[in-house]
Amino acid sequence: MLRSILFWILAVIITIGCLSYQDKTGPTYPLEDTIEIFGENVNFKFLRSETIGTDLQIMLQDPVPAGIYGYVKYRRFKSNDEWATVQMEAGSFEFRRRWEVQTVQGTGAKLPSLLERAGKYEFFVYITKENAEPISVTGDKPIYARYKAKVPAWALLVHILTIFISMAIGIRTVLEALVNGNYKWMIWASIISLLLGGFVFGPVVQWYAFGVLWSGIPFGHDWTDNKVVFELVFWFIAAYMNRGSRRNRWSVYIAGIATLLVYFIPHSIFGSEYNYQTGSGHGTAG
Q1: pLDDT tens, 62-96?
Q2: What is the pTM assigned to this prediction?
Q3: Taken in order 50, 55, 61, 65, is the CA torsion positive or negative?
Q4: Which residue, of 116, 148, 180, is where some domain finishes?
Q5: What does the alpha-carbon distance between residue 251 and residue 282 come to, in Å, rounded to a whole number?
């Protein structure tokens, strides 16, 4: 009994670590850091995902050193737009991510909301001072921010919860197989929870955000969709190899490794994207 409790605790800890890593390394996670420029430390925070109807907020956080100024050079990604610039001004900025809302003081700019689902901005943030050459915070690499439609909190919460449960059960299954315990029912629990999280509630979130239910194979190359297919295949193989009275622990280990690999792939990488040049996109209804 004690071993089982410890295994569940370990599985939850590993799951929290993996999901946190996947979330924070994804291309839509806010870009936050401190840069030393002109001999001063400047803290910045740039949103890389926003909801249609809300301006994209880009800012240098207080305290901004005296004499430091900034501006944003931007255009719609995959468009024929000319580059535009907007000066950063002192003010209050509100950041929303999922159900979290944060109000921050600083110097920033607001880019007008895009109207297309999966439409993106590409932009550079330049910092300068009087009689100095402007310096890009990210060098010659642009920053990208993607727009989505509003996703109801219940849909997002249920999706995240079922994915969390699925991974926790998967890791727990591997731990049980390591001691040659009663792991067979856990294989099916992993499969059922993965089906719910990745193939039922995942498409619900995708529908609200981008107007499509599925953009992975065979309809597209969205890695967020395709990686759950990859994971599911290995769990079905494990179920087959352990059918009836058969016991094949190696198939469970391999399914566990596949699960870890999936969650070490940053979330939303190679995801939905609208192309303004063609008036269409992949993984989005526009």
Answers
A1: 888 888 888 999 999 999 999 999 999 988 887 77
A2: 0.86
A3: positive
A4: 148
A5: 34
